Structures are given as structure tokens and as C-alpha cells.
Amino acid sequence: MKILITGTAGFIGFHLATRLTEMGADVVGLDNVNDYYDVELKYGRLKESGISDVQYGKLIKSQRFDNYTFVKLDLTDKESLDKLFKQEKFDAVCHLAAQAGVRYSLVNPYSYIDSNIYGFLNILEACRQFGVENLCFASSSSVYGLNKKQPFSEKHNVDHPVSLYAATKKSNELMAHTYSYLYGIRATGLRFFTVYGPWGRPDMALFKFVKNILEDKPIDVYNYGKMERDFTYIDDIIEGVVRVIRKPAVPNRGWNPYSPDPSSSLAAYKIYNIGYNSPISLKRFIEIIEKNLGKKAKKNLLPMQPGDVESTHADVSSLIDELGYKPQTPPEVGIKKFIEWFKWFYKV
């Protein structure tokens, strides 16, 4: 297969590109390498993939993988994106590129519309125009918004997001369903639950906590620590994505329009949660970090942030029943691996 992965200078995209190239797939990676967070980390991921001398619009062959090519491109550049699709003739697309972050959407909302809505529309249109029928795309656990019933199920209504980021992800799901219904694109949305691990993002809690504790700085603990998250290790996320690419969505022939299941359709459309399925408290999360660092955290206890939620818990029964897979890396293992990577990369 020839697969386009968007967001390969990003955290999840980097790991997916590595995994698929090692499996023998012909991978083209795409990223605009924006400055939402430290671009040196993004270029570090690219370097790890064998990519150097990056120039806008130029296809760069990996020096590490014969079957990996990267191009720096913005998803809002429709002309260049269409040219890439026409030239490369992709069998599948895994769309991971997005403007990430809940809190950043409170201060820079337009970047979310540009990347997550307009950019995704360009991906859908390119799939339609150039005959790509296998599409998977990143959604987010944040779409569950004000929902309180847990574990969160893909069969639950998700009409009450509490951040613009979450609203754009719900919009992506709706847009994908429309294109699946109208044009036969086999579209699968993946709701990721708090992904962490080596090469992770600096705006995520684990990265910030480790960095600040090592530098003897206080860590910001929101809602006074009364939070729970279904932390999901990166390798578990990647395994789920790979299985989805191998098994694209199909129509649900038993779908009932009088009692519609939001996670499937008469169209070839499917939504999956990918989460560890066992949330832990922020307090316990910090304790594991402290144990691995051999150092206590100085905590700056703060109220809940706008756009945030108190807890997340993924129902992964569909993932188990339909793809034969359940994430299995415990936080004690995943956090240790992240800290080992952090110390290596930053020479701590």
C-alpha cells in the first residue's frame, strides 16, 4: 500500500510513519512544521525518521527508510495538496495533522478553523477527486464534552463540546460521514484518549510535569488535582491505527434510522475510541512521575480551566469486538519509557 500520513512531524504521526515503514508500507509523510510548540522537537522527530534538508513543497527521501518520503506542506494549500494526490496515487490516507490543544483554542481560535476544518475539507476533497477510498482520521475524547455517563461510548450522543478544539473534531466526524455517504469514501474516525509517550508534545501534562520537576519549578495542577484521565500509551494508539488502516469501514446493514447509532451508518463510516480503558487520578499520575525521577513535585494547585473536563474513561468494547485489540500498557511502564526518552533527548 501507498499511504499518506499527515502530521508526521507531530507526535502520533511520527510514530505511525515509523511503524508503517518498518512494516513495509510505502509512506508519504506531510506536515507544515508550524510553531505551535518547539519546532526543534518536530525537526528532531524528522531527523529520527531520516529526513533532513526540509523545503516547502519538496519531496524528501528518508536516509533511514527507502520506503519513506516527506513533504513540508500546509493543508490549506489546496493546489499543492491536489498535485501531491495526483502524483502519488495513494491507496489510503491517515489524517493526523491538526491544530491541537484545548487551552490554545481559547486564545487562537482561527487557527483551529483553518487547520481542522478547512484543512480537513481539502483532504476529503482530494480523496474524492483522486479516488482514495480508505480514510482514517484523528478525532478526540474531547468530543464527549459535558457528558457524565462513563465509560464514554461511541454510541453516546456528543453534541455538547466545551472547547472549540472539540467542536472542530466533532465537525470532522460529521464531514467525514457526509463524504462517505455521498462519495463512497470508507471513513473511520479515531477518538484518542490522552496520548503520552516518547517524543510527546511539550504542551501535554507529562512533558510539562517532568520538565518542571527536573528544573525545580512548580507544576500547575488544575481542579486542585481532582482529575482523572484515561492515559493511553503511544504504542497502543499506533497498534489501533494500524488495525483500522488494514480494515476500513463498511456499511452497517443493520443500522436503524429510527434509533440511529452515532458510531456507524448505512454509509461506510465508523467511529472507534482508542483508550487504555482504566483511568487514573492526576494525583496517582504525579506519584508515578515522582517515583521515576526520585524527586518530589512542587504543586501549584489551581481551579479547573475553561474547556477542560474532570474525567475521561474510554469504552473500548467496539475496538475489542471488531478489531480484536485492547490497549494494554500500564502508566507505570509508559511513564518510565517517556522519562528515559526525555533524559536522552534533552541530555538531562
What does this structure look like?
The longest helix has 21 residues, at 109-129. An eight-stranded mixed β-sheet has the order 3-4-2-1-5-6-7-12, with helices on both faces. The chain has a two-stranded parallel sheet with strand order 8-11. The N and C termini lie far apart (40 Å). The mean pLDDT is 96. The protein is built from ten helices and 14 strands. Strand 3 and strand 4 (68-72) form a beta hairpin. The protein has helices at residues 11-22, 39-48, 78-88, 109-129, 164-183, 205-214, 234-246, 282-293, 317-323, 331-345, and strands at residues 2-6, 26-31, 59-61, 68-72, 92-95, 134-140, 186-192, 195-196, 219-221, 228-229, 232-233, 269-274, 280-281, 299-301. It is of the alpha/beta class and 348 residues long.
Structural class: alpha/beta
- Helix proportion of residues, in percent? 25-40%
Beginning-to-end CA distance, first to last residue: 40 Å
Q: Biggest β-sheet: count, sense, barrel?
A: 8 strands, mixed
Overall, the morphology is globular
Main-sheet strand order equals 3-4-2-1-5-6-7-12
DSSP summary, beta strand count: 14
H and E order: EHEHEEHEHEHEEHEEEHEEHEHH
Please give the radius of gyration in angstroms. Answer: 19 Å
Strand content: 15-25%
Mean pLDDT: 96
The low-confidence runs, each spanning 5 or more residues with pLDDT under 50, are none
Helix run count: 10
